[in-house]
Amino acid sequence: MEDVSKTPLTAVDRIADGEGLQMAKAAIPYLPVSIQKAFSVYIKMMEVSNILSYYNNPVHACSAPSANPEEILNDILPYCTDNQRQTIDQAVNLMTTLKMYQEIQKM
């Protein structure tokens, strides 16, 4: 399994976590084996409930941040493999180069 300890939570994961479900997840291995499965499913149901509640709020449902492609690509970098990071870095560099070229053309 990949080391996810250094991977930050995504915005959706922070919404799903609600009031600290990450702590409950951390406790699962210490519970009796007979209830680990049921408790895990319960936590997932709570996450889904938190997400649905969030998006049922009209203020949140309508608010999508405007972002340029470079911002989006940079935001997903922490969740990528090394090969994917390389590809995204190349794409971001290409976009930056194209922007510089367009600026030069305007002169």
- Tell me what portion of residues adopts beta-strand conformation: under 5%
Q: Work out the number of β strands.
A: 0
Provide the number of structural domains: 2
**Given the helix and strand composition, which structural class is it?**
mainly alpha
Q: Terminal Cα separation, in Å?
A: 52 Å
Shape by Cα distribution = elongated
Secondary-structure element pattern, one letter each: HHHHHH
Which residues form runs of ≥5 with pLDDT under 50?
A: none
Helix content: over 70%
Rg (C-alpha, Å): 20 Å
Largest sheet: none
Q: Whole-number average pLDDT? A: 85
Number of helices: 6
Q: What is the secondary structure topology, with strand pairs?
A:
Elements lengths: L10 H7 L3 H7 L5 H24 L1 H4 L7 H8 L5 H25 L1
Helix pairs in contact: 1-3, 5-6
Q: Your description of this structure?
A:
The protein has 107 residues and is mostly helical. It folds into 2 domains: 1-64, no CATH class; 66-107. It is built from 6 helices and no strands. It has helices at residues 11-17, 21-27, 33-56, 58-61, 69-76, 82-106. The chain starts with 10 loop residues before the first helix and ends with a helix. The model has no long low-confidence stretch (mean pLDDT 85).
